[in-house]
TrEMBL record:
The keyword Isomerase does not apply. Residues 224-508, 539-581 form the GH15-like domain. Pfam families: Glyco_hydro_15, TREH_N. One of its GO terms (molecular function) is hydrolase activity. Keywords: Hydrolase. This is Glycoside hydrolase family 15 protein. It comes from the Bacteria. Residues 8-159 form the Trehalase-like N-terminal domain. It comes from Micromonospora coerulea. The lineage of its organism: Bacteria, Bacillati, Actinomycetota, Actinomycetes, Micromonosporales.
């Protein structure tokens, strides 16, 4: 495909949307209105679905890197006659610094070409395609802009070179010599009830984006192991946060396949409750306390009070109806169909959803004293639902679309909900409530320890009364259900690693087509919590080396070809890296003998000077 490999993509963000641009200078993905809006460039899913290329004519080689502590990408193209740099960034609001970054971004993509040596002939090909490639835009010259409009969107392209436009696309050829610079901006605006796109200077956009991202990163520090990888992952997670609401999208893309040519091609541009507690732990690790409050606010508003099944995911502004539908006109990445918008997992019962918010609330409890009434009502309702629903079968955390089962990890997360509710005590309920939650918690634990364990495979298994293995049970020590050095947990870790791992990549289940990145990092955390410093560190480094050249992870990695698979970049993967690095840091600091969770990160918080309230 013209969009290249998944791992070829670089990631730009502005707090509202994301751009993917590949090593050949092609912008292959942009949904400028917001992460989950229709695209104007979707070459990743079909050659005809829109792109914007700036690259040398003829043969070239490529080197690229982010400018330090930013999501500003610098790509150097070297040819037989010289070299040029293309610097790409999504604009931040002028002067936005620190925690203001991304709140009011103007939705402008800037590209600056700088001659480094010799002279390099380049070409530009601009081909917007609106509504996921359905609509060819009209291109009209208005003053100094080439205006593309279709449906409810407008794009204004400004260039310092002449452009020749044809039906639905424009071309340009130019030569850049050492010391010369050319700037390009592409601004988006809704077609109705809004003014035209912002008019910005490309070089000023780059400079402001650099200053903005660096000011944000300057507020957050992490001095544990693997500092460079952790800081890069923290910035990627921030880039996938929809700043107006605080929602973290699982990924900024849709329908990138878990298996080439396969059918598991889902839309990940929504916020999952499952990611929540792991995200907050990761933010604690890098001292992003302001982002914690933003994420919690989004979750409380989105979840509200529920009758029936508690949704496990929401739109970036809290939408609940995420009905899935097919885009039959798109070929799909590498021919992988169907291409899907929306995600019907929002309809599923997933009982782990009760545990994540309560676990997250316990981690940040010093910010919840006194507890706001809406948060109290939400957490209390989730504790009640966990006590009521834990015995019901569900779809499991991997969102299997066949019959519901009694998944062990779902039961464990119901235990987590009840355990944290008991810990909160009178902050959540009466003495009778706490006693009832404690009784239900203990009942869940007994059920998991008996029906979730298989003597035949010497491990905790995917579901009750089965011998099937599943990487999700590695959550047990991470949430404090069972210590990692418990003999049963050690046996489980060893068995899962032996049977589901290949070359450091851990599949979720037998038959999973590729290694799942976060479950691989869970294995690192489990080994660290079990005190196996050397093996945990070696595995972490092997996994970290699997990122692309920019330090970005997809959802999965083929253990044989090394190809990145699934939506990209994947927040869950980067969150796993941060938390695993933190667990290894705790191990080096002699904290591996602490209860694994929820207290396992509290010493790090205390050392950073943040107050801790122990309820």
């Amino acid at each position: 495909m013209g969009g290249g490999r998944i791992a070829d993509q670089g990631f730009l963000a502005d707090g509202r949307s994301a751009v993917l641009v590949d090593r050949a200078g092609s912008v292959n993905w942009w949904c400028p209105a917001r992460f989950d809006a229709p695209s104007v460039f979707a070459r990743l899913l079909d050659d005809e679905a829109g792109h914007w290329v700036i690259c040398p004519e003829g043969r070239f080689s490529t080197e690229r890197a982010y400018l330090t502590d930013t999501l500003v990408l610098r790509t150097v193209f070297t040819t037989a006659t010289g070299s040029v740099a293309v610097i790409d960034a999504l604009a931040l609001e002028s002067g936005a610094r620190g925690h203001e970054v991304g709140l009011h971004s103007p939705r402008v993509l800037a590209r600056v070409v700088r001659g480094l040596s010799g002279e390099v002939p380049l070409r530009l090909h601009y081909r917007p395609r609106f509504e996921y490639g359905r609509m060819i835009a009209q291109l009209v010259r208005q003053d100094d802009a080439l205006v593309a409009s279709a449906a409810s969107a407008r794009l204004d392209l400004r260039a310092t070179i002449p452009l020749v436009s044809e039906v639905g696309e424009a071309f340009g050829s130019f030569t850049v010599r050492a010391g010369e610079t050319h700037g390009f901006t592409l601004g988006y605006a809704p077609a109705y009830d809004a003014g035209p796109p912002a008019v910005l200077d490309a070089e000023q956009v780059i400079d402001n984006a650099v200053a903005g991202w660096r000011s944000f990163m300057g507020l957050h520090d992490y001095r544990g192991r693997y500092r460079e990888q952790v800081r890069r992952s923290a910035l990627v997670v921030q880039g996938m946060t929809y700043r107006p609401s605080g929602a973290l999208v699982a990924a900024p893309t849709m329908s990138l396949p878990e298996e080439l040519g396969g059918e598991r091609n889902y839309d990940y541009r929504s916020g999952w409750v499952r990611d929540f507690s792991f995200t907050l732990e990761a933010l604690w690790r890098v001292a992003c306390t302001d982002e914690v409050n933003l994420h919690v606010g989004w979750l409380a508003r989105s979840m509200g009070m529920n009758e029936g099944i508690v949704p496990i995911m929401y739109g970036v502004e809290g939408e609940r109806d995420l009905t899935e539908h097919h885009l039959d006109h798109l070929a799909g990445f590498a021919g992988s169909r169907p291409v899907l918008v929306g995600n019907d997992a929002w309809r599923q019962r997933q009982n782990d959803v009760h545990g994540e918010p309560l676990s997250a609330a316990w981690l940040m409890r010093e910010h919840l004293d006194p507890m706001p009434p809406d948060i109290r009502q939400l957490l209390r309702a989730l504790a009640e639902r966990a006590a009521q629903d834990w015995h019901l079968p569900d779809a499991g955390m991997w969102e299997v679309r066949d019959a519901e089962r009694h998944y062990v990890s779902s039961k464990v997360q119901c235990w987590t909900a009840l355990d944290r509710a008991v810990r909160f005590g009178s902050h959540l309920g009466s003495e009778a409530d706490v006693a009832r939650w404690a009784a239900a918690r203990d009942e869940v634990r007994r059920a998991v320890l008996t029906r979730g364990w298989s003597d035949r495979v010497a491990a905790f298994t995917a579901a009750f009364d089965t011998d099937e293995l599943d990487a999700s049970v590695l959550l047990m020590p991470l949430v404090g259900f069972l210590r990692a050095d418990d003999p049963r947990m050690r046996s489980t870790i060893r068995t899962i690693e032996e049977r589901l791992s290949h070359d450091g990549l851990l599949r979720r289940w037998d038959g999973d087509p590729a290694g799942f990145v976060i479950s691989s990092f869970w294995l690192v955390s489990c080994l660290a919590l079990a005190g196996e410093r050397d093996r945990a560190g070696q595995l972490f480094e092997r996994l970290a080396d699997r990122a692309n050249d920019l330090g970005l992870f997809a959802e999965q990695i083929d253990p044989y070809s090394g190809e990145a698979l699934g939506n990209f970049p994947q927040a869950f993967s980067h969150i796993g890296l941060i938390n695993a690095a933190g667990d290894l840091t705790d191990l080096d600091a002699g904290r591996h003998d602490l209860p694994p969770a929820p207290e396992r990160i509290i010493p790090a918080i205390q050392e950073s000077g943040r107050p801790v309230t122990d309820h």
